[in-house]
Amino acid sequence: MLYEKWKEVSENHENEQEEVKFWEEFLRSETNIYINVLNNKTQIIAGKVSDLAEKYGTSTVFFLGFLDGINESIEMSQDLEKIEEDTQINIKIDWEKLYYNMVDVEAHWLYNLKGWNEILDANLRKNIQKEHNKSKIVVKDDKIGRNDPCPCGSGKKYKKCCGK
């Protein structure tokens, strides 16, 4: 039920203004959780969901939203649909995967947090960003050069035929 509540509050908004307000509030809460986790180098988050939500100063629904966001960056992903307020969780964060995933979703407000300085050194973070950028480069194997023969079969160079 908790996951359904998370989906309900995150997806159903009466208007754009309500949606913006919701996401501002959630992202502020999520950022505060990450600040706490990074500054304390908390690689393992364990306990009852309701206790963890209280510890991080958020609602259980927002804490589940945090779990939804971090689920691909932990060693063993959780079945979020089975998690309730009284569920005991024990997750271990894969720091490099988390940083990469933050870069991938362009969450600059998270991957630029100062707490990363004590967890991943600057060179490693830079290399993770480079690796991510390389994964986004699209190389076309079938690209026709200006001086290649035209694919229409005319025998002319592409630039003098169909490339005009």
UniProtKB/TrEMBL annotation:
Gene3D superfamilies: 3.10.450.50
Alphabetized SUPFAM superfamilies for the sequence: Sec-C motif
InterPro entries the record matches: SEC_C_motif
Domain of life: Bacteria
Name this polypeptide is given: SEC-C metal-binding domain-containing protein
Native organism: Peptostreptococcus equinus
